[in-house]
């Protein structure tokens, strides 16, 4: 009986969920409607429903009155019957699950001129983005925004049916931790290729310096022991030569008269 009761409850939940998710429509640049979703960031759920009304987005679970997360939709477009866009999740009781391990990662925005700015996004609406750089609040029009990397910003996509409607939506994070970490707490100028040759030149200069040092140290480490050995051998030969010269040119000691008489007496005997 318990299994039957649980099965009935699950069927009813799926039924109401399918009724609620009646499709997401896109017309004249405006999103409106509902769609199913199973994953946003680190938040997994089989009964998630996405409700979009213009630029407002809410994530709801079946049987709950309040959204688990909400945010703002921007840069939505349709190409080849595929809907794409971005969503900035601002608040919600399950927001921490959506951010997951990316929470606290610095945000990175890039404008159309190629300037990349590491910052902290404070808010975002349908027209502009507010952010803080080194304690100063700044703003950028969304029309000037080229790309964005943030734990709170997610890409979404959906395949449209009949060209205007979709019933399932997929979210993926824009957070690029390696890029944000590389330029943490600094503003980068326009991206160009001059930094690559500079790095190559610096690397080559370092290798030349190492080669020069090795060219000095290595010969010395070999020459010094050899010179020491030859010096020892030269001193030994000089010492032997001195002994030979002393033996050859110094006069031999003369025997005393008493010793000569003793030698004669011995011979007479």
Can you tell me about this structure?
This protein is of the alpha+beta class and 269 residues long. It has 2 domains: 18-191, no CATH class; 196-249. The chain has helices at 2-20, 95-99, 177-182, 195-249, 257-268, and strands spanning 23-27, 30-40, 43-53, 56-61, 69-79, 82-91, 107-111, 116-124, 128-133, 136-141, 145-149, 153-159, 165-166, 170-173, 187-188. The chain has a 9-stranded antiparallel sheet with strand order 13-1-2-3-4-5-6-12-14. Strands 7, 8, 9, 10, 11 and 15 form a 6-stranded antiparallel sheet that branches. Strand 9 (128-133) and strand 10 (136-141) form a beta hairpin. The longest helix has 55 residues, at 195-249. The termini are far apart. Mean pLDDT is 77; it is low at 4-21 and 183-196.
Low-confidence stretches: 4-21, 183-196
Q: What best-fitting shape do the alpha-carbon axes yield? A: rod-shaped
Based on DSSP secondary structure assignment, what is the total number of beta strands?
A: 15
Would you tell me the structural class of the helices and strands? alpha+beta
Radius of gyration: 44 Å
Number of helices: 5
Helices and strands, in order, run as HEEEEEEHEEEEEEEEHEHH
Number of domains: 2
Strand arrangement, largest sheet? Answer: 13-1-2-3-4-5-6-12-14
Question: How would you characterize the largest beta sheet?
Answer: 9 strands, antiparallel
Q: Mean pLDDT, nearest integer?
A: 77
Helix content: 25-40%
Give the strand content: 35-45%
What is the end-to-end distance?
147 Å
């Amino acid at each position: 009986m318990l299994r039957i009761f649980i099965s009935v409850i699950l069927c009813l939940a799926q039924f109401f969920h399918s009724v609620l998710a009646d499709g997401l429509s896109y017309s004249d640049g405006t999103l409106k409607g509902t769609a199913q979703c199973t994953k946003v960031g680190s938040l997994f759920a089989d009964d998630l429903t996405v409700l979009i009304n213009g630029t407002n987005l809410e994530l709801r679970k079946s049987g709950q009155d309040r959204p688990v997360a909400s945010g703002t939709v921007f840069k939505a477009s349709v190409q080849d019957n595929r809907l794409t866009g971005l969503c900035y999740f601002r608040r919600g009781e399950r927001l921490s699950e959506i951010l997951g391990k990316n929470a606290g990662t610095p945000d990175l925005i890039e404008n159309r001129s190629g300037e990349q700015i590491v910052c902290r996004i404070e808010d975002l609406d349908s027209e502009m983005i507010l952010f803080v750089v080194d304690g100063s609040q700044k703003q950028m029009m969304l029309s000037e925004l080229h790309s964005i990397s943030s734990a709170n910003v997610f890409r979404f996509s959906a395949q449209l049916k009949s060209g205007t409607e979709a019933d399932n939506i997929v979210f993926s994070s824009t957070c690029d931790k390696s890029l944000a970490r590389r330029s943490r707490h600094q503003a980068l100028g326009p991206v160009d290729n001059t930094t690559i040759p500079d790095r190559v030149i610096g690397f080559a200069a370092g290798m030349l310096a190492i080669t020069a040092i090795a060219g000095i140290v290595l010969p010395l480490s070999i020459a010094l022991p050899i010179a020491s050995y030859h010096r020892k051998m030269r001193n030994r030969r000089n010492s032997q030569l001195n002994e030979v010269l002393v033996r050859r040119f110094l006069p031999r000691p003369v025997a005393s008269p008493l010793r000569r008489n003793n030698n004669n007496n011995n011979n007479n005997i």
